[in-house]
Amino acid sequence: MITPNQFKKGAKIEVDGEPYSIVEYLHIKMGRGGANVRTKIKSLLSGNVIERTYKSDEKIKQPDFEEKEMQYLYKDGDSYVFMDNETYEQVYIPETDVGELADFMPENLNVYVLLFNQKPTGVQLPNFVELPVAQTDPGLKGDTVSGGSKPATVSTGGVVQVPLFINEGDVLKIDTRTGTYMERVRSAR
């Protein structure tokens, strides 16, 4: 059980026996009354988005998920294909359930697939991945770490803001939770 004060974007809650993911939340403090939390939540089964308001001291059940380690194989049309590392069974997860995580999900990456009642409902990536830069503007001599930033497209198609000294072919460490650049792991030169 969690309270609305513990909400964060992407957190999973259970509403009427169905798992939901928090898309947005806003704490609202009323004049004399208690605080409320207005949320937009997305059903992990149907994809419907609804709005719901909770009192700040209300207890909300968290869904009983099973996390299973699987390997991401490839994209097939509008689905992503994952393989169970123990049984070698393949599971198809719709593009809408994977969402923006696909921007930082290279093939053959081990991920955790969330199962609710044996049905795949989402994917959880490792906190950090290392990806090569596929395209970025060239860095100029004299660019420093403390200077500005520029967009760089990594091999999986995600775009991340990087320091000016990053070049194409450099391998970057990226935080998958926020989609931000952490450090350069290897230089292309």
What does this structure look like?
- There is one protein chain.
- With 189 residues, the protein is mostly beta strands.
- It has three domains: 52 residues, SH3 type barrels; 59 residues, OB fold (Dihydrolipoamide Acetyltransferase, E2P) (Beta Barrel); 59 residues, Nucleic acid-binding proteins (OB fold (Dihydrolipoamide Acetyltransferase, E2P), Beta Barrel), CATH 2.40.50.140.
- Strands 7-6-5-8-9 form a five-stranded antiparallel β-sheet. A five-stranded antiparallel β-sheet has the order 12-11-10-13-14, with no helix packed on it.
Question: Helix- and strand-based class?
Answer: mainly beta
| Percent of residues in β-strands | over 45%
Q: Output the radius of gyration.
A: 20 Å
Distinct helical segment count: 1
- What is the percent of helical residues? under 10%
Tally of strands: 14
For the largest beta-sheet, the strand count, sense and barrel status come to:
5 strands, antiparallel
State the end-to-end CA separation. Answer: 51 Å
Family: Belongs to the elongation factor P family.
Domain Elongation factor P C-terminal: 129-184
Subcellular location: Cytoplasm
Organism: Geovibrio thiophilus
